[in-house]
Amino acid sequence: GKPGAPAPPDDSDDDEDKPLPTELTRAVIAKSMGRIRGQVFACFERFHMPGAAPLTYEVAGNGTVQSVKLGGGLAGTPTGDCIVEAARAARFPRFDGPVQTFTYPFFLRR
Questions:
Q1: Residue from 70, 105, 91 nearest 13 by CA
Q2: For a tag site, which of 9, 23, 41, 104 has the least CB within 10 Å?
Q3: What confidence tens digit (pLDDT) does each residue in 70-93 have?
Q4: How far apart are CA 107 and CA 15, in angstroms?
Q5: d(Cα 23, Cα 8) in Å, to the nearest integer?
Q6: DSSP annotation string for 12-47
């Protein structure tokens, strides 16, 4: 065995010795969006307003969400406000860049 304290459990996907990616890839974004999908659809279940919910994110290089804006017909509705709340809870991995902006569409329907 190696001397010293045991390594903490690795609950993140990134290896510390790898350089950080320069941006969030579509796959990484989709994975993060998949984690909030349940909360987003809970908004739909609550208000039963179908429609497109395109979310425009600004994410800082340290992975924190700086802003979320909702486009489409649900913006400004109780459903839309609920979705934005859920969307703010998204977490992203760190990347080697200042701020990345992207739009991810959710489609709410039965």
A1: 91
A2: 9
A3: 999 999 999 999 999 999 999 999
A4: 34
A5: 27
A6: SS--TTSPPPSS--HHHHHHHHHHHHHHHHHHHHHH
